[in-house]
Amino acid sequence: MSAFTIKPSEKANRTVNPIRAIVDQVLAGPPSTCPLERIPLSLGDPTHFGNLLPPDILTTALKESAESHKYDGYVPAFGCPNLRSSVANSFSSSNVTYTPDDIVVASGCSGALELLLTGLLNEGDNILVPKPGFPLYEVIANSHGASVKYYNLNPEDNWQVDLKSLEDAVDSRTVGVVINNPSNPCGSVFGKEHLKDILSVCEKKGVLPMGDEVYGNMVFEGSEFFSLAEVSAEMGGKIPVVSCSGMAKQYLVPGMRVGWLMFYGEGLDALKGGVKNLSQVVLGACHLAQQASSVALDDGCVEFKKELNLKLQTQANAMASSLQGCHGLTIIQPQGAMYTMVKLDPKKFKDIKDDIDFTKMLLDEKNVFALPGTCFGIENFFRAVYCAPKEMLEEAGQRIREFCEDHKA
Ligand SMILES: *Cc1c(COP(=O)(O)O)cnc(C)c1O
């Protein structure tokens, strides 16, 4: 027996990602007896299969930056001047002007969200988050002794926000609303008018709109991405917006850990100052990675992004059409990002009671791994990531089809 019993802090104890416990339920039990090779449709890491590579200019810039030894040192904790000015330039438009002072760089978009929410939340406060939605917002809020309340996305309406549920969820301790567009896990993209309606609710209720736009511009034919700041500007620019984005998804380098916050509009100076103070704790993101990101943003990588969207669209279509007409499933055509949420009707199956059951049995019998909707706060859906090569997605679709037939009620 050791003489020491070192206890973690209360904060550490309440910092728990709910996905883990749910995934453990799916993975519980004996290992799959299926002889087929595992197809993971569960991973939100686009680099996993090796079919999606970052633009050459980014890789070259990283190598040259390292060799130059000009970027080995510390930079301002809230971001190196080059990158802040590249972000400001590439996200400004005819309506929205960012200066480098409006940008705070962090270790990934997750780090940016953490900075923002730490800067905003006191114990007992809450933020509104989408349901279904990305679990990280809740993890961060809970870690601060704050909480989340949910507003609904409606699957019957292309996952648009149920505006009434949004308005009704605001209470006296609500400080902000997270709007994730394009959406993880839904793969949906909001139109401009819908974003105006969402901002109007935020304005009416006096809560800060916070955009998680890490998938900005990753949209397919027929959809267009509008940033919250752009939409606020079009409404007269009276509604302040803080948005986060980063290199992880749009440039296919989640491992680089570069993300940022962008402050748009009036009334945000104190919050921005607070967030910059907070950035002093970890002294910012990797300098080399910031420099390389700056080079890629300055270039714009227009062709690369066009090709990436086309590839993702092809993969999304392959996934959707291979599941189309599957017994007991309803497909909602994805419009962007890397995900789709597939609805399942337990009544159509003889021995599957919910999404946890479905994903667990699918893994066991067909070695296809998809995350249950419960991970994202909604039952009887599963999330499929379409980052895998087209042929692999078609193979997964075929196995899911057989699985659904095998369990038909
Ligand atoms: C991947 C993801 C992030 C985090 O991105 P990092 O830059 O890797 O931290 C944030 N929000 C959503 C919705 C994501 O899917």
UniProtKB/TrEMBL annotation:
<dbReference type="InterPro" id="IPR015424">
    <property type="entry name" value="PyrdxlP-dep_Trfase"/>
</dbReference>
<feature type="domain" description="Aminotransferase class I/classII large">
    <location>
        <begin position="39"/>
        <end position="400"/>
    </location>
</feature>
<dbReference type="InterPro" id="IPR005958">
    <property type="entry name" value="TyrNic_aminoTrfase"/>
</dbReference>
<protein>
    <recommendedName>
        <fullName>Aminotransferase class I/classII large domain-containing protein</fullName>
    </recommendedName>
</protein>
<dbReference type="InterPro" id="IPR004839">
    <property type="entry name" value="Aminotransferase_I/II_large"/>
</dbReference>
<dbReference type="InterPro" id="IPR004838">
    <property type="entry name" value="NHTrfase_class1_PyrdxlP-BS"/>
</dbReference>
<dbReference type="GO" id="GO:0004838">
    <property type="term" value="F:L-tyrosine-2-oxoglutarate transaminase activity"/>
</dbReference>
<dbReference type="Pfam" id="PF00155">
    <property type="entry name" value="Aminotran_1_2"/>
</dbReference>
<keyword id="KW-0663">Pyridoxal phosphate</keyword>
<keyword id="KW-0032">Aminotransferase</keyword>
<dbReference type="InterPro" id="IPR015422">
    <property type="entry name" value="PyrdxlP-dep_Trfase_small"/>
</dbReference>
<comment type="similarity">
    <text>Belongs to the class-I pyridoxal-phosphate-dependent aminotransferase family.</text>
</comment>
<dbReference type="GO" id="GO:0006572">
    <property type="term" value="P:L-tyrosine catabolic process"/>
</dbReference>
<keyword id="KW-0808">Transferase</keyword>
<dbReference type="InterPro" id="IPR015421">
    <property type="entry name" value="PyrdxlP-dep_Trfase_major"/>
</dbReference>
<feature type="modified residue" description="N6-(pyridoxal phosphate)lysine">
    <location>
        <position position="249"/>
    </location>
</feature>
<dbReference type="GO" id="GO:0030170">
    <property type="term" value="F:pyridoxal phosphate binding"/>
</dbReference>
